[in-house]
Amino acid sequence: MPTVGWVADNATAATFLQDQVRSGDIVLVKGSRSGMHWQIAEALAGQDVTAWGGWNDKKENTPT
Asked: Where in the sequence is the domain holding 52, given as residue range(s)?
């Protein structure tokens, strides 16, 4: 049965999903650019996450 979670921001969403996603799972991250949901996809892919706080912030690593 799927797990549903409500989170406050993209960093929390990424952390939540990292605990839920298993090897071989396919994840679709859908949203508008204004929601900056690419940050969630970057975190799940193990990439540096761009601009957790906003459009102009420096790159930061995935939250722990």
From this structure: 9-64
Give the pLDDT mean for 7-26: 90
Judge whether 17 lies within some domain.
yes
Q: Do the beta carbons of residue 61 and residue 49 sit within 8 Å?
A: yes
pTM: 0.68
For residue 10 the two structure tokens come to: 């993209």
What gap in Å lies between CA 48 and CA 40, rounded to an integer?
A: 11
Residue 7 CA to residue 4 CA, distance in Å, equals: 10
CA-wise closest residue to 16 among 37, 39, 40, 36: 40
